[in-house]
Amino acid sequence: MRILVANANTTAAITEACAASARAAASAGTEIIAATPDFGPRVISTRVENAIAAHGLLDCLARHAGQVEAAILAVSHDTALEAARQLMPCPVIGMTEAACLTACLLGGRFSVLTLGLATGYEELVARHGLAARCAEVRGIAATPQDTLADPARVQAMLVAAAAEMAARADAIVLAGAVLAGMNRVLQPRVPVPLLDGIACAVRLAEMLVTLGLPKPEAGSFAAPSGRETLGLSAPLAALLAR
User: Fold this and answer.
1) DSSP secondary-structure letter at 224?
2) What CATH number is associated with residue 33?
């Protein structure tokens, strides 16, 4: 089984962190293929960057269409998730959606812990229909760049926040592609499960591939066809025109 881990940020170090987390979670026989867009923001932190990154991510996915059995969006904003599910011929899973859905299986309520502003993740949880199950979304005063430069300091901040959040949540989602794999480091210091969206997404992707469910041929997630475009890469234009 081949699973694509596609990062919407263009920072290679984040792609590598996500790929390492995916390989640690994958079953024997699952091959993880990591990919980074050719263009777009280095790190997505704003609505504008998220919109720009959607094009780069769809372009990246299109280059791997037909070559993988599933795709994971290694971006905590679940950038372009609905469009990617319509575009690709295989299952597509967003890392934050995967972690939140997994958290729902562990208890009554979960919380989301991220870097920076929490507003975007509050909106994301609501878009996934899980606001009623979410106790809290909290952001610490650190950036992805801080995490790469001084991981020990950011880890201490995450542990302190998670310890407080555990009073109201049965599980905590670590939202941020740069935080991929960090749950294994922090878990001994936190009293409730910490969920890494990449690891959750890998296991869900393996399940969906094993189930062998067909792609919808009707409705809003049926593959696009006959769409005329201008200026897109050949792989992306081909998927829209097929």
Assistant:
1) P
2) 3.40.50.12500
